[in-house]
């Protein structure tokens, strides 16, 4: 039964994709004006992503695959590595128990290697701690940290934060040795807001009882999605008999199928993301929180957070320079 | 709370004195304008005007043939401190200003204004001049953009580069087709000749560092459309936002510095996609063939002419005309900083700044906006730091964090004082120091508070420890109390 479900959903996804392309083609001329207005409504000029996998050990393969799949989608839609902070235990690809070394698969039958050869992990193995995560978010980083390990966002940045792992009611377990509570997370976001380190923030969490993690947020402009409500467990999707572990979690699997249909010029909005993974497919009830967000979810484009579509202006002015200037000596 | 003082000198040339002056020259006058940002924050602009008549030297300078010559002759006679303005009023019928032009703004801090008949008309014109040459309500509001209530400022207004202590500028040459084009660009010479003068002028505002690189096989993210009528390839305006992303991943940045990076890309299209033109929203080709993105940088497309004979040997050697390229890049740099000349009233004539890139009053524009922004940032940072330390009582404040906070407070107070005295340069330097100190204090790594104990966790830890110990203690205390009470009762019974 587990094998039949993804096949049927993939056919449905293909049909939906064709329909979407047809609609896009028809709506393009009228959509240009709307697209221009949409741009100027979000007000952001750059995008960042912080992707955190909080588990280690071979049997938590699916959490690493979750995070790497989101990483690939975000890169495909345009956010460059310099704007992604990826925190992974990174002990899957080269694990002695991995029958296919240097790969991490997200689909059964080893269809898609999400590890690839251009993955750039910023915090790996024992560096993925609650302290480092909070330091990245609040910016209180020791001065010797290189640029790639910092979140250099400003007041016009939209940030996507994705966390996955094992969690409970009000906490998230980090690497089997410590935990982060929802109050600490809410305080970290408030510190970010005080220093205007984000314009808008999208928080996605795929753990058991994930909705408890966003209950305590109190800073403005945050939208949160979780894979399950308090008291519910998030379930994994499909095991692969060749590798011997579950490859992905259900919620992230369906979110990724949804994201595969998004391209940088998509006009799909957040309301569609809220519909992803109904209870029939996910077994748990995904939740979301939008009361802190300034705009309506239907005006928020998926690419506002997952992609990096920049506002551009045509340059109409030039300077007039005299050609006969002698070169200044450089020091 | 914050008062921006602009010292102005209004000098009346011969025959330009209006009839209805309230007092004989010279005299002083003050005009105030309130810029209210939100319910609690407002900035007062105070224009301190000194009206006087011209000296003999100034009269001689004003007798020059054109406005530009007059301005050049007047320059050594003016007060040129940062932030100040000198306005020379010429008679209404003067031929110094061309027909239809009422105001001429030079490249320093002076302007020539045509008299308007009455003092009121002149003052209206003076107000327009100060709006152009120092700051407007909207430029101050944009600098304080995080305090403006949502919805009042259009999102466009918040797109200038934020005030920072330094900026990194990277010039990149993108050659997607090295088999067809060997591109030579003398970037070092161009930087020394054209870019350095502009950056030297801007060095007051921030530190600049310049890098350059050449990227091969870097393609734009969009396939251009072939247009039969002009037999050229076109990039339409709505596909431009998607151009940057595939390239950005390869641009790289210096690992050591944390300053914002401005990227200027020069793209030489492939032989198969030449010539390539950018179309604006109305479908007309753009004369500069360039576009820019706020807070990121700019891209210019450099078309290579087709070889004279189709059998010319590939690769073609291309020598890039750096002057033409730098004209566009430096204009984009100005636009990224917010120095645009588009919103000037039609009767104004602005002198082009030439190789210096920007006029002195445009530098003042930047300094006003950045000083106000710095002061606002420092006060927000220190307030939120204080709130954080109030909320979490057991964070240890190190001595150097404390001294940074004191220094930040002292600097910001001195910045506000200097602004109210009209010393823009000193105010800007003080505000820069204040920002450095407050950022160092706020982002000190030692201020991370990690231990959050919810009440139920505290109960869960302490109850199993103390409850088993407490039960026998309480019971024996009760027993002692009972025995003392019994002993007290016995003497009365034994009688």
From TrEMBL, chain A:
<comment type="subunit">
    <text>Heteropentamer. Part of the GPI-anchor transamidase complex, consisting of PIGK, PIGT, PIGS, PIGU and GAA1. Interacts with GPAA1. Interacts with PIGT; this interaction, via a disulfide link, stabilizes the expression of GAA1 and PIGK and links them to PIGS.</text>
</comment>
<dbReference type="GO" id="GO:0006506">
    <property type="term" value="P:GPI anchor biosynthetic process"/>
</dbReference>
<feature type="active site">
    <location>
        <position position="166"/>
    </location>
</feature>
<keyword id="KW-0732">Signal</keyword>
<dbReference type="GO" id="GO:0042765">
    <property type="term" value="C:GPI-anchor transamidase complex"/>
</dbReference>
<protein>
    <recommendedName>
        <fullName>GPI-anchor transamidase</fullName>
    </recommendedName>
</protein>
<dbReference type="GO" id="GO:0006508">
    <property type="term" value="P:proteolysis"/>
</dbReference>
<keyword id="KW-0337">GPI-anchor biosynthesis</keyword>
<comment type="pathway">
    <text>Glycolipid biosynthesis; glycosylphosphatidylinositol-anchor biosynthesis.</text>
</comment>
<dbReference type="InterPro" id="IPR001096">
    <property type="entry name" value="Peptidase_C13"/>
</dbReference>
<feature type="signal peptide">
    <location>
        <begin position="1"/>
        <end position="26"/>
    </location>
</feature>
<dbReference type="Pfam" id="PF01650">
    <property type="entry name" value="Peptidase_C13"/>
</dbReference>
<dbReference type="GO" id="GO:0003923">
    <property type="term" value="F:GPI-anchor transamidase activity"/>
</dbReference>
<comment type="similarity">
    <text>Belongs to the peptidase C13 family.</text>
</comment>
<dbReference type="InterPro" id="IPR028361">
    <property type="entry name" value="GPI_transamidase"/>
</dbReference>
<feature type="active site" description="Nucleophile">
    <location>
        <position position="208"/>
    </location>
</feature>
<dbReference type="GO" id="GO:0016255">
    <property type="term" value="P:attachment of GPI anchor to protein"/>
</dbReference>
TrEMBL record, chain B:
<keyword id="KW-0812">Transmembrane</keyword>
<dbReference type="GO" id="GO:0006506">
    <property type="term" value="P:GPI anchor biosynthetic process"/>
</dbReference>
<comment type="similarity">
    <text>Belongs to the PIGS family.</text>
</comment>
<keyword id="KW-0472">Membrane</keyword>
<keyword id="KW-0325">Glycoprotein</keyword>
<keyword id="KW-0337">GPI-anchor biosynthesis</keyword>
<dbReference type="InterPro" id="IPR019540">
    <property type="entry name" value="PtdIno-glycan_biosynth_class_S"/>
</dbReference>
<dbReference type="GO" id="GO:0016255">
    <property type="term" value="P:attachment of GPI anchor to protein"/>
</dbReference>
<keyword id="KW-1133">Transmembrane helix</keyword>
<comment type="pathway">
    <text>Glycolipid biosynthesis; glycosylphosphatidylinositol-anchor biosynthesis.</text>
</comment>
<keyword id="KW-0256">Endoplasmic reticulum</keyword>
<dbReference type="Pfam" id="PF10510">
    <property type="entry name" value="PIG-S"/>
</dbReference>
<feature type="transmembrane region" description="Helical">
    <location>
        <begin position="459"/>
        <end position="481"/>
    </location>
</feature>
<protein>
    <submittedName>
        <fullName>PIGS transamidase</fullName>
    </submittedName>
</protein>
<dbReference type="GO" id="GO:0042765">
    <property type="term" value="C:GPI-anchor transamidase complex"/>
</dbReference>
């Amino acid at each position: 039964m587990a094998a039949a479900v993804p096949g049927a959903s993939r056919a449905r996804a293909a049909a939906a994709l064709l329909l979407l392309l047809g609609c896009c083609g028809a709506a393009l001329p009228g959509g240009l004006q709307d697209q221009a207005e949409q741009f100027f409504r979000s007000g952001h000029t750059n995008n960042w992503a912080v992707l955190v996998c909080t588990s280690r050990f071979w049997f938590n393969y699916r959490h690493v695959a979750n995070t790497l799949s989101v990483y690939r989608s975000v890169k495909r839609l345009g956010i460059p590595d310099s704007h992604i902070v990826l925190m992974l235990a990174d002990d899957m690809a080269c694990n002695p128990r991995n029958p296919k070394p240097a790969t991490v698969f997200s689909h059964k039958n080893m269809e898609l290697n999400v590890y690839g050869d251009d993955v750039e992990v910023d915090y790996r193995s024992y560096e993925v701690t609650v302290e480092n995560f909070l330091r990245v978010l609040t910016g209180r980083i020791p001065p010797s940290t290189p640029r790639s390990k910092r979140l250099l966002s400003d007041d016009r940045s939209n940030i996507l934060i994705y966390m996955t792992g094992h969690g409970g009611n009000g906490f998230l377990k980090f690497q089997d040795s410590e935990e982060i509570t929802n109050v600490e997370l809410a305080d970290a976001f408030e510190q970010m807001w005080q220093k205007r380190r984000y314009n808008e923030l999208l928080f996605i969490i795929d753990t058991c009882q994930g909705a408890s993690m966003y209950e305590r947020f109190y800073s403005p402009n945050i939208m949160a999605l979780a894979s399950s409500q308090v008291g519910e467990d998030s379930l994994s999707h499909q095991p692969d008999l060749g590798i011997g572990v579950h490859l992905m979690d259900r919620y992230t699997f369906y979110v990724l199928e949804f994201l595969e249909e998004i391209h940088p010029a998509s006009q799909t909005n957040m309301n569609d993301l809220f519909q992803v993974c109904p209870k029939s497919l996910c077994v748990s009830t995904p939740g979301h929180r939008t009361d802190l967000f300034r705009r309506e979810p239907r005006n928020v484009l998926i690419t506002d957070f997952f992609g990096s579509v920049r506002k551009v202006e045509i340059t109409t002015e030039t300077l007039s320079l005299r050609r006969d200037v002698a070169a200044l000596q450089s020091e | 709370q914050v008062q921006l003082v602009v010292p102005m000198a209004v000098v009346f040339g011969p025959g330009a004195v209006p009839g209805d002056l309230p007092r004989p020259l010279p005299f002083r006058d003050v005009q105030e304008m309130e810029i209210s940002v939100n319910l609690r924050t407002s900035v007062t602009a105070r224009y301190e005007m000194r009206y006087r008549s011209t000296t003999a030297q100034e009269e001689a300078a004003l007798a020059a043939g054109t406005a530009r010559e007059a301005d050049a002759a007047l320059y050594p006679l003016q007060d040129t401190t940062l932030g100040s303005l000198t306005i020379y009023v010429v008679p209404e019928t003067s031929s110094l200003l061309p027909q239809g032009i009422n105001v001429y703004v030079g490249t320093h801090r002076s302007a020539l204004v045509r008299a308007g008949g009455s003092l009121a008309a002149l003052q209206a014109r003076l107000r327009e001049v100060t709006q152009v040459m120092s700051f407007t309500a909207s430029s101050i509001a944009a600098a304080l953009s995080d305090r403006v209530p949502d919805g009042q400022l259009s999102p466009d207004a918040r797109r200038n580069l934020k005030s920072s202590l330094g900026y990194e500028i990277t010039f990149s040459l993108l050659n997607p087709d090295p088999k067809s084009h060997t591109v030579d660009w003398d970037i070092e010479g161009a930087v020394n000749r054209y870019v350095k003068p502009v950056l030297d002028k801007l060095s007051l505002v921030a530190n600049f560092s310049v890098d350059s690189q050449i990227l091969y096989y870097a393609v734009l993210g969009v396939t251009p459309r072939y247009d039969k009528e002009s037999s050229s390839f076109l990039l339409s305006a709505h596909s431009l936002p998607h151009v940057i992303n595939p390239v950005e991943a390869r641009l790289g940045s210096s690992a050591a510095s944390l300053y914002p990076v401005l990227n200027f890309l020069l793209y030489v299209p492939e032989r198969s996609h030449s010539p390539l033109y950018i179309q604006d929203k109305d479908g007309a080709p753009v004369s500069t063939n360039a576009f820019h993105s706020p807070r990121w940088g700019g891209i210019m497309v450099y078309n290579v002419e087709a070889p004279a004979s189709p059998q010319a040997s590939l690769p073609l050697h291309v020598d890039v005309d750096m002057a033409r390229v730098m004209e566009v890049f430096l204009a984009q740099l100005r636009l990224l900083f917010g120095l645009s000349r588009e919103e000037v009233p039609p009767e104004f004539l602005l002198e082009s700044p030439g190789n210096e890139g920007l006029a002195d009053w445009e530098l003042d524009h930047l300094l006003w906006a950045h000083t106000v922004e710095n002061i606002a940032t420092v006060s927000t940072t220190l307030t939120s730091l204080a709130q954080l330390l109030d909320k979490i009582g057991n964070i240890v404040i190190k001595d150097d964090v404390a001294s940074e906070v004191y220094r930040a407070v002292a600097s910001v107070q001195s910045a506000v004082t200097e602004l109210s005295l009209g010393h823009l340069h000193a105010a800007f330097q003080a505000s820069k120091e204040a920002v450095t100190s407050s950022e160092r204090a706020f982002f000190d790594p030692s201020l991370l508070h990690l231990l959050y104990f919810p009440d139920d966790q505290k109960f869960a830890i302490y109850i199993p420890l103390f409850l088993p110990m407490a039960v026998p203690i309480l019971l024996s205390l009760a027993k002692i109390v009972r025995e003392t009470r019994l002993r007290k009762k016995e003497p009365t019974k034994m009688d």
